[in-house]
């Protein structure tokens, strides 16, 4: 700095001398007009000296490195560049949830009359939880029962009527067959007497006509009896089917009436119950839920940036109670809410003891396969450089220089190095906020 100050003072002196010389020349020209020479020996000497001074100052400025900065080595974080197994993963927060959840919905709407079990209580399968009442449903049951009774009575009356009609027609058939046999005997007798000229033609024709009439009458009666029997069978079958439908309808309505009493479909924990005595619930409304207590899953909220890289079958892990446990993604929910989507993860080798519903875990979700790679530890340098450059320590350990690099995958501990660094080199991974854009850091 003293050399620069001295050079500056010399430059100022030369400039002052040059200005004084010009002033004297102007004063002389005021007295007499002379022919001025453009390049006098004195002026050449002055310009030459000024050029030498400027060149010297520029040389001094160029030889002094303005991009060097002295830093305290104790405040830096140094880390080696290594080569070894690398796994890309992200760390997300997961919540322990029941593996199976059964929701309780109102099949039929109604008014809450009684609540038998409190929310948060363990419950056995089939245990009544609450009871609803529905006057319209009860009235509908009574109406269906009345319709069923009427249809059953109608079937009974139809069968009685058809039975009587069948008996009457059979009686008529018997009478016709009886008369037919008599007519056959009379015709045979008249035929013999007519051949022997013992009777008249009129009596013979009457006997013959009566036989033909009774024969046709018997055939018609038999056909009528057959058709009527077929019609009766179809009519009774239709009535029986109608009765079966009415009974099925009545059973369904009674089942809906039984569904007014909400029972536990499984054994578990009644984790939610949304019902108060006197409250009206519409059909299909959510009344609560039952969770299976002995099986859990982990639901992780993941940043939407990774939605294209998360799929079922990928693995994850978390630390709990001094151990590390594996997870496998079983379901991915594609809906993005507030910049995140969710994924369910299950325990492939059993759930750890002591895990409870509602606990939060730091889950490491793997985004690729384990492979060897050059890597550098994570640090505050990334916020300043974006992974485009880093300070590399000289082998002497006295200074570090800036070097362009290219980073790839990352996890919570390391960056994958694609270009710019070699195994065994040492880099500065701490914050670069106080270094500006310096090319060289001198460690002190």
Brief summary of the model shown:
The chain is an alpha+beta fold and 444 residues long.
Please tell me about this protein's structure.
- The longest helix is centred in the middle third of the chain and has 61 residues, at 135-195.
- The protein has helices at 2-31, 41-63, 135-195, 201-258, 381-385, and strands spanning 68-71, 78-80, 82-86, 89-98, 101-105, 110-115, 122-123, 128-133, 261-263, 268-273, 280-281, 286-291, 296-303, 315-320, 323-337, 340-346, 360-366, 371-377, 389-393, 399-404, 406-410, 414-419, 426-428, 440-443.
- Helices cover 40% and strands 31% of the residues.
- The protein has 5 domains: 2-63; 68-86 and 371-443, conserved putative lor/sdh protein from methanococcus maripaludis s2 fold (Beta Barrel); 90-99 and 295-366, Elongation Factor Tu (Ef-tu), domain 3; 108-129 and 261-290, no CATH class; 136-258.
- The protein is α+β, with helices and mostly antiparallel strands and 444 residues long.
- α1 runs antiparallel to α2 (41-63) and α3 runs antiparallel to α4 (201-258).
Helical coverage, percent range: 25-40%
Distance between the termini: 21 Å
Number of helices: 5
Quote the beta fraction. 25-35%
């Amino acid at each position: 700095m003293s050399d620069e100050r001295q050079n500056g003072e010399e430059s100022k002196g030369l400039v002052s001398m040059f200005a004084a010389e010009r002033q004297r020349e102007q004063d002389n020209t005021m007295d007499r007009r002379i022919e001025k020479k453009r390049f006098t020996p004195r002026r050449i000497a002055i310009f030459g000296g000024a050029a030498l001074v400027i060149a010297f100052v520029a040389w001094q400025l160029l030889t002094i490195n303005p991009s060097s900065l002295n830093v305290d080595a104790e405040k830096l974080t140094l880390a080696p560049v290594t080569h070894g197994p690398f796994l890309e993963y992200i760390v997300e927060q997961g919540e322990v949830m029941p593996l199976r959840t059964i929701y309780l919905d109102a099949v039929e709407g109604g008014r809450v009359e009684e609540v038998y079990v409190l929310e948060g209580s363990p419950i056995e399968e089939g245990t009544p939880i609450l009871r609803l009442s529905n006057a319209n449903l009860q009235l509908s049951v009574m109406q269906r029962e009345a319709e069923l009774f009427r249809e059953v009575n109608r079937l009974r009356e139809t069968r009685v009527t058809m039975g009587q009609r069948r008996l009457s027609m059979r009686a008529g058939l018997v009478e016709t067959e009886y008369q037919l046999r008599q007519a056959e005997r009379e015709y045979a007798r008249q035929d013999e007497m007519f051949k022997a000229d013992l009777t008249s033609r009129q009596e013979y024709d009457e006997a013959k006509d009566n036989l033909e009439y009774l024969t046709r009458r018997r055939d018609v009666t038999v056909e009528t009896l057959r058709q009527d029997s077929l019609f009766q069978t179809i009519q009774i079958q239709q009535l029986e089917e109608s009765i079966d439908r009415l009974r099925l309808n009545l059973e369904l309505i009674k089942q809906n009436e039984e569904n007014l009493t909400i029972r536990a479909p499984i054994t578990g924990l009644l984790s939610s119950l949304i019902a108060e005595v006197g409250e009206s619930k519409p059909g299909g409304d959510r009344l609560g839920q039952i969770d299976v207590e002995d099986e859990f899953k982990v639901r992780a909220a993941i940043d939407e940036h990774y939605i294209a890289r998360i799929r079922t079958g990928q693995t994850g892990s978390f630390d709990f109670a001094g151990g590390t446990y594996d997870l496998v993604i079983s379901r991915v929910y594609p809906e993005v809410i507030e910049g995140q989507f969710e994924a369910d993860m299950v325990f492939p080798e059993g759930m750890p003891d002591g895990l409870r519903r509602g606990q939060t875990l730091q889950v490491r979700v793997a985004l690729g396969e384990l492979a060897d790679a050059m890597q550098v530890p994570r640090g505050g340098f990334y916020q300043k450089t974006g992974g485009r450059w880093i300070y590399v320590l000289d082998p002497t350990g006295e200074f570090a220089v800036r070097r362009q690099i290219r980073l790839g995958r990352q996890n919570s501990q390391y960056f994958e190095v694609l270009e710019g660094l070699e195994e065994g080199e040492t880099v500065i991974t701490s914050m670069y906020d106080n270094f500006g854009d310096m090319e060289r850091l001198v460690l002190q």
